[in-house]
Design brief:
With 156 residues, the chain is mostly helical. The chain has one domain. It has six helices and two strands; from the N terminus they run ααααββαα. A two-stranded antiparallel ribbon has the order 1-2. A hairpin with a 6-residue loop joins β1 and β2. The longest helix is centred in the middle third of the chain and has 30 residues. The protein is globular.
Amino acid sequence: MGAWLAVAARVVLGVVFLRMGLAKVEDPVAFLKLVREYELVPDALPWLLNSVAIVVPWLEVWLGALLILGVAVRGVSLTLLAMLIVFTGAIAVRGLALAEAGSQPFCDVAFDCGCGSGVVAVCAKLPENVGLMVLAGIGVATREGRACLRFAWRRV
């Protein structure tokens, strides 16, 4: 794998998560409502629901910034990969539930997934997330230090 391919994968993934996180930070109440719709966190635990709605966007911003800067690339990529697996599973399950409830084909289902990009079709979002998982996997697999802040400090 080319060194610059690894850098490009890291930066693209970082920019995507930075953008998605900032979109959620701009309207935390809307993101809280979307988190509630997934029913992954019980309504009986409002403190946990609020914590998820507050922490996830800022975590995405922080991890995206770290990737762009090239700090802790493998650890950040692994964390994002784990998050993407959970997010993708939740989107697929919600899409299936909406398709069943509306008696419509799975690929006709579109909803605001909470990704910061508004309403998206499930059959477009799932491959997009798989692509992001591939980028995260490249970050986990590579030991490339090119364009990383960590290695820039060593040269000073």
